[in-house]
Amino acid sequence: MSTPKPVDTILAATDFSENALSALDWAEEIARSHDARLVLFHALPPPITAAAAPEFVVIPPEIYETQEQRAREHLEELAEKRRAAGAKAETRLSLGPSGQAILDAAQKEGADLVVVGTRGLTGLKRVFLGSVAARVIRDAPCPVLAIPAEEKGVHRPIRRLLVPTDFSDDAQRAVDAALRVLGAVSAEMKITLLHVWRVPIIFSPWATFPMDSFERGAAEDARRRLEEAAGPLRAQGYEVETRECQGEPADEIDRTAAAIGADVVAMGTHGRSGMSRVFLGSVAERTLPAAPCPVLTVHPEG
Q1: Which strands form 185-197's sheet, in the order they lie side by side?
Q2: Is the per-residue pLDDT at 212 higher than 70?
C-alpha cells in the first residue's frame, strides 16, 4: 500500500468577499493541521483597452495602480492575521480573468488543495454556482474545496463525511482525497456512502410495464454494492453507514447532507459516464449551489 502524498501547499483564492473570507478560515485550519504553506491568492482584472472594448470609457492607469496596491495591502493584512495564528501564510497577486488565474496559480504553486467560495462579490443567490468556482472545479489540477456562502467562520472537525457514489473509481478517489486533505478529522468521524438511482421513464403506445420489480431490483443491487464499497473502509477502522434512494442525484445528495448533518460532501466530477468535463452540468456542479455544507470535488487528473 503506497504512502499518501503529503499536503504541502493549499491555495486559498479570495476576492475579499464575505464568502471568500469564510473559505479562507477553512483553508487556514486545514493548512495548520498539515503544517502546510497557505497561499492567499487574488486575481485582478486586467485594464480594459479601447481597442478591446470600445464601448467602455478608458480608465486612467493610475486607477488600476491604486487598485493593485490596495489589493496587495489587503492580502498582506489577511496573511499577517493567519501568521499570528500559526499558519505559514504567503500572498500572490496576478492580473487576468479570475478562473484561469486561479488554475495557473494552482499549477505554479504545486497546490495539493484549492479552497474557493461559491458566491463571490456578485452576491448572486445560490441557485447558481459562481462561474469562477465552476471553472476551477472543472479544471483544477488538484482537489477543490468549495465553501457555501452560509459558512461564516464555522470551520469544525469533520465528524460526518457524505460520499455519493456511482460505484466508479471517482468515488474512491473522493474518499481518499477527503481523508488525505481535510486535516481536522474527528476521531469519531462517520462516513455515509450514498447511491442515488433512477429507473428511466418509457413512453409507449402500449400498456405501461409494471416497474415495481425493476425498482426493487435496483434498490437491492444498490444495497449490495454499497456494502461491498463499505468493506475496505471498515477494514481501515472507519465507521461507515450506507444509504440508497431513488431520485434526482443532486437533489438527493443535498437532501441527505442536510438530514445527516454532514460537515463535508466529497465527490468525484467524472463518474461512470466518462464524459469530458467540457460540459457544465455534472452531478457535482448541480449539487454545489444548494449544498448545506462544503463540497470537496476530485476529478481523475487530480
Answers
A1: 88-95, 37-44, 9-13, 113-117, 144-147, 295-298, 264-268, 158-164, 185-197, 239-246
A2: no
Architecture of the domain whose range is 156-302: 3-Layer(aba) Sandwich (3.40)
The CATH code that applies to domain 1-155 is 3.40.50.620
Q: Is 296 within 8 Å of 143 (Cβ atoms)?
A: yes
Averaged confidence pLDDT in the chain? 82
- Do 156-302 and 1-155 have the same topology in CATH? yes
Q: Report the SS3 class of residue 256.
A: helix
Q: How many residues does the chain have?
A: 302
pTM for this structure?
0.85
Residues 43 and 66: their CA atoms lie apart, in Å, by 15
Work out the pLDDT band at 211, boundaries 50, 70, 90. Answer: low
Would you place residue 282 in the very low, low, confident or very high pLDDT band (cuts 50, 70, 90)?
A: confident
199-208 contact pairs (CB < 8 A, 24+): 199/246
Domain ranges in the chain?
A: 1-155, 156-302
Q: What is the DSSP string of 77-98?
A: HHHHHHHHTT-EEEEEEEES-H
Taking the C-alpha atoms of residue 193 and residue 183, their distance in angstroms, rounded to an integer, is: 20
Kindly state the average pLDDT of the residues 251-273.
86
